[in-house]
Amino acid sequence: MRRIISFSVIIAVLWAAMGMGGTVWGFFSLGALLLVFGATVFGTLVSYSVSEVNLAIKAYRTTGVELSREESLHGANVFSRMSIMASGAGLTGALLGLLGLVCNLDDPTKLGPALAGSILSVLYALLLGELILGSMASDCLSRGGLTGAVQRPRSFNTPRALIGLGAVLLSLCLVFVAITPFMLANN
Fold first, then answer.
1. What pTM value is reported for the model?
2. Does the first or last residue of the chain, that is N or C, have fewer Cβ atoms within 10 Å of its Cβ?
3. What is the average pLDDT across 154-167?
């Protein structure tokens, strides 16, 4: 019950925040969703078999039951791997969006959708990887009594986070480079 309430509150807060800036549908990109969710699921299946992923999901879904050490570690490992795959998919989407931005610098009507896809893939990856899958991994550890024994690495201390930050900064620079000629032409 605690999980349902927590996820419901998170979704409600995010929905309200997205609606403040205009329409909520502006935060929807089918391409970014398919990239992040598809790469997360199929990337995880490279590391784990379908039966191993199903075992982790079943262990997570059994509520009110303490998990054994093996079940706890297995569930945490699978969901942590999925979290890592989601982050990688978000970074891939950001780079693909930036590539689309650079390839279409001569057509200003294509700059916005490319940049939006880039940023939305990072947003989807953060929501999926950190809020959902990361909390699922932590929940498996805590239900197995391993909260202090195993710590998930902090995202901001990894090279992956630095690459993501670099991609965001690069995207901002490219936006300014792309917009500057149009702003100068209007003056």
1. 0.72
2. C
3. 62
* Higher pLDDT pick, 128 / 6: 128
Alpha carbons 152 and 142: distance in angstroms, whole number: 12
Rg (CA), the chain: 19
Q: Are 132 and 58 in contact (CB under 8 A)?
A: no
Closest CA to 55 of 74, 41, 68: 74
Which residues make Cβ contacts (< 8 Å) with residue 128, sequence separation at least 6? 36, 37, 40, 86
C-alpha angle 82/97/83, rounded to 5°?
A: 10
**HSE-CB for 164 with a 13 A CA cutoff:** 21
Query: For residue 166, what are the contacts with CB-CB under 8 A and spacing of at least 6?
Result: none
Nearest to 68 by CA among 133, 135, 139, 145: 145
Report which residue type is found at 183.
M
Q: What are the Cα distances from residue 69, in Å, to 48, 92, 127, 135? A: 19, 34, 28, 18
Q: What angle do CA 39, 90, 29 make, to 5 degrees?
A: 85
Mind listing the pLDDT tens digit for each residue in 117-136?
888 898 899 889 988 898 88
Q: Can you give the pLDDT at residue 105?
A: 79
